[in-house]
Amino acid sequence: MNSQIELDNIVEVINRAKTIGIFTHVSPDGDAIGSSLGLYLGLKQLKKDVDVVVDEYSRCFHFLPAREDMKEEGRKEYDLAIALDCASQSRLFDPNDSFLHSKVTVSIDHHASNTYFANFNYVEDESPATCKTLIKVLKRLNVSINKEIGECLMAGIITDSGGFRYSTVDDETFEFAAQMLDVGVPISDIYYRTFDVKTKAQFELSSIATSRLTFYSKDRIAFTYITMEDLKKVKAAAGDHEGIVNIGRNIEGVEVSIFLREDEDGTYKVSFRSNDFVDVSEVAKMFDGGGHARAAGCTIDPPFEVAVKKLIKETVKRL
Length: 319
Ligand code: 5GP
Ligand code: MN
Fold this sequence. Notes:
Helices cover 39% and strands 18% of the residues. By secondary structure, the protein is α/β, with parallel strands linked by helices. The strands form 2 sheets. It has a 6-stranded mixed sheet, with helices on both faces.
């Protein structure tokens, strides 16, 4: 489907709907939270009866407007359910299965691995963030992107682009940031809160993970992990593991960084990052995961040693 036609369709179904539910992926990051709140505020401006449903998230985003309106579950059904920043229905945080029961569904996203699971899908896989893709939708809906909406969208753009560092950042991204400065969005403050400030538990987890860094393939792969015991010891809260995967990635000569985190159910959540050429979404796909070329993830079963061996083996193949 031509994406322009799909955008027209999405604008039409949004305009037509009275009740709208907004959903995003489990373990939400800045882009998931920012796009959800940004769209929520935009649809409120259009006087829609709208809910925003978001899973537990890092307290570094507590400064965002309207976050107290977030719901833990959706209604039984909506005229329209919108999934943001979510590549597949199985990754959607939707405890009430509202998405499944809603009359019309839409997905707005920037993952190349998006499965086009909704009735209408607007996916820009070259976009640095779903928040950036959302700008087009909001403009087409004649929403005024004010300071509050701008704060949400900039939080997503800043975090998902690694602070304007990734190659997906284009002239439009900087132009939008400049426009947002003009309406009063405190960009340097958002940058500081989301990048520089660490919780104590986050700092402690980072030092544990740093002490366990192991290198493979002539130091081109960096690997580290944290266990449930570590998470309990430092009294970790949601999002406190964020950033650990970058420790290995930022070491000179490392192409792929792999970070494994033990989950409550005993499985391991894996994060992959690459620097120049390895498409880590391909590696993640081997384990039923997905993501982007330079940032991807999957879940893998224990035992630990076997899991690590498999991950390293699949990565080495692509070096
Ligand atoms: P993170 O390492 O920050 O958890 O995730 C990096 C990227 O990979 C994100 O864009 C995220 O959507 C994607 N991702 C992480 N875990 C999974 C997974 O289990 N399945 C899929 N399909 N994508 C994932
Ligand atoms: Mn994203």
